[in-house]
Amino acid sequence: MLRITQRTSREQPRSAARRRVSGGGTTQRRVQIAVRGARLFLYLVATMAASAPLLFSAPSSSASSAPSVAAAANGAIRGRVDIRRTATGIERRPGVADLGTPPGRLIPDLRRSVVYLDSAPRGAFEPTEGGRAVMDQRNETFVPHVLAITVGTTVDFPNSDKFYHNVFSLSKSKPFDLGRYATGSSRPVRFDRPGIVRVFCDIHSHMNAFILVFSHPFYALTDADGRYRIDNVPPGTYGVIAWNEGSPSEPKPVSVPDGGLAELDFTLR
């Protein structure tokens, strides 16, 4: 009995060790089962994503794009300005040369008008690069008598006469004085603000001209028959003004159709 008891006492630690080993194997099996379960879950998620792309992926261009709407096409405004009033120019001051044969002198076209939009469409006031224009001085006359430009334009004032000129302006939007300069010379002026600039010659008081400076391109100068045309006008309703020799008309409404043509005439009395 004593031997049996002793063997049993020696075998007790071995049984505890076996139990500990058995317990460790159970933990490993649990970990393996959890890993397999996670892999299965990821596989199911991937399978569902492949079968339902609208839920798990970004919408395709065909699914998200709305029906396209054609952009509106610009139209035009045209018409005629009828001048009913009598336009009179400034009388020429007599000079020493008038004692002999008077020199030839150009008569300014006082019936030329400028037609423009009173309210320009959106985006029309974006800054643009200014160009160049010319207002010549020939036979004691500014040519042309009326000049329409956009902001940023530089106007050259050449002297084509055989005597001195002195171009100046007292207009608020652009006062300047070019001083006296001889024939064959030219002096520039940059117009950087919108407005109406009245131009004179300090030597020849009868010389005068107008420069209309716009902050948008929607204007036109009439031809010899009083006709005008303003192109590239976005569709919409606008107020249009006809200007002649310092006198603007009241704004007249006009609707420009999509890609179409609007007619608008003026009578200035």
What is the element layout, followed by pairings?
Blueprint: H1 2-51, H2 53-56, H3 61-64, E1 75-83, E2 114-117, E3 132-134, E4 136-138, E5 141-143, E6 146-150, E7 153-158, E8 165-169, E9 176-181, E10 186-191, E11 195-201, E12 208-214, E13 219-221, E14 227-233, E15 236-244, E16 247-248, E17 252-256, E18 261-263, E19 266-268
Parallel strand pairs: 1-18, 1-19, 3-7, 6-12
Antiparallel strand pairs: 1-14, 2-13, 2-15, 4-5, 7-10, 8-9, 8-11, 11-12, 15-16, 15-17
Structural commentary:
This protein is α+β, with helices and mostly antiparallel strands and 269 residues long. It folds into two domains: 2-64; 75-268, Cupredoxins -  blue copper proteins (Immunoglobulin-like), CATH 2.60.40. Helices cover 22% and strands 36% of the residues. It has three helices and 19 strands. The strands form five sheets. Strands 2, 13, 15, 16 and 17 form a five-stranded antiparallel β-sheet that branches. Strands 6-12-11-8-9 form a five-stranded mixed β-sheet, with no helix packed on it. Strands 1, 14, 18 and 19 form a four-stranded mixed β-sheet that branches. Strand 8 (165-169) and strand 9 form a beta hairpin. It starts with a helix and ends with a strand.
- Residues in helix, %: 10-25%
CATH topology of the largest domain: Immunoglobulin-like
Q: Total domains, how many?
A: 2
Q: So what's the overall shape?
A: elongated
Q: What portion of the residues fall into strands of 2 or more residues?
A: 35-45%
Residue runs with pLDDT of under 50 for 5 or more positions:
1-11, 49-68
H and E string: HHHEEEEEEEEEEEEEEEEEEE
User: Mind telling me the CATH class of the largest domain?
Assistant: Mainly Beta
Structural class: alpha+beta
User: Measured on Cα atoms, how large is the radius of gyration?
Assistant: 44 Å
Report on the biggest sheet.
5 strands, antiparallel
Helix count, DSSP H or I runs of 4 or more residues: 3
What is the number of strand segments? 19
